[in-house]
Amino acid sequence: MSVRVALLGCGTVGTEVVRLLEDQAGDLAARVGAPIELAGVAVRRPGRHPGVRQELLTTDPAALVARDDVDVVVEVVGGIEPARSLLLQAIKSGKSVVTANKALLAEDGATLAEAADAAGVDLYYEASVAGAIPLLRPLRESLAGDRITRVAGIVNGTTNFILSAMATSGAGYAEALEEATRLGYAEADPTADVDGYDAASKAAILATIAFHTRVTAADVHCEGIRTVTAADIAAAEGLGCAIKLLAICERVPGAGRGTAAGGAGGVGELGAPESVSARVYPAMIPLSHPLASVGEAFNAVFVEADAAGQLMFYGQGAGGAPTASAVLGDLVAVARNRVGGGRGPRESAYASLPVRPIGDVLTRYHVSLEVADRTGVLSAVAGEFARRGVSIAAVRQTGGEADGEQSAREQQGARLVVVTHGAPDSALAATVEALAGLDVVRGVESVLRVEGLGRPVSTLGVAG
Ligand code: HSE
Q1: Which tens digits make up the pLDDT trace of 18-43?
Q2: Which CATH number fits domain 138-317: 3.30.360.10, 3.40.50.2300, 3.30.465.10, 3.40.190.10?
Q3: Which candidate in 92, 95, 102, 202 is catalytic?
Q4: How far is CA 22 from CA 45, 66, 104, in A?
Q5: What does the pLDDT look like over 128-141, one tens digit per residue?
Q6: Where is the ACT domain (predicted)?
């Protein structure tokens, strides 16, 4: 008996999958208890794959999936269609599926999971989030007896490279993006990465597994890094913080469960049911947090669970060989299940918790304003925060000369930086909008969220 594999796609990841399957054939067979054999590889242009035996190549993925001698379909093409139809076709004909397709899983993972359950086959997708880092299986299996309260991390290497380059060299966003493109970290069209969509798909997958609740990409609030400036990075450093694009998945306790450990979204109002929040945005985090020192294109995910406490997962989140490592791990697991006659864990979405809109989530803001430097400005600014019930944690003014002439001071203006305590995001956003309309505010220079990620306020370098 052997386990026969159809590979859909043979780009950067697929090529490495083929190489590993061939290079390690003997070891893989010993680990599985049967050889894993490639039955075919579906590609668009057969002439472009010198590393694959020509007789394996086909341009007809549907026919490959339909073959009776295929046991497992591995999909590394990406995108919604035709990947979804091909995988559903595979599942319905009794084939197990291994996929790295985060966009498909985040948009319609439920359809695939239901089909896999109905057909009694496996659906594995470790490579869809954070490349080589073993993360989904630890969440799904190792922590299955625990109660996960937060999964927060850096799950997009391109943006982490750009933000790290900005912090290291003082470069602006455009310059750092150019460097990322030149070095091959950013694609020619970087939209999915820099606007946060890639991270949002991964957040949806993580939240679904961590909270036993179906969360789709549409449920994830998403902001990218295009608006982050060199001045923002410098301001963050001044506060003892780094700026990272974070994917944050949090359990928000209902009334009577107290607060999540330091969680921004952790306060349940009276009578509210337990819920979850999933969001992606650039945020300031304390330099003392392990995520702050994750540089270059690396990924890292911080997991908090009631009994396990804090866990950190770190490694390469992209690239051919690292992603192929995760694909092969899944393939071995699925092959073992086939040989042993069992199945891996099914989808677990029993909790069906509601997903909170971003406006209801407690966040903290760092707001930088250009203001006129005259009597009453601070009070006008503070009044807008107070009117919406937003508590200020720290205020810092720079630029105004303490002993200058009043007319000169008024002309020159000053910069006011306000850091808030936690408040509903909608109240913070409304406050910023109101500030922008004040006569005394010449401009809102930047607005960034501040995430303690379980660290107390005092570690952010501002008075609590
Ligand atoms: N484009 C992703 C990143 C890798 O930059 O991390 C694939 O998920």
Answers
A1: 999 999 999 999 999 999 999 999 99
A2: 3.30.360.10
A3: 202
A4: 21, 24, 28
A5: 999 999 999 999 99
A6: 366-449
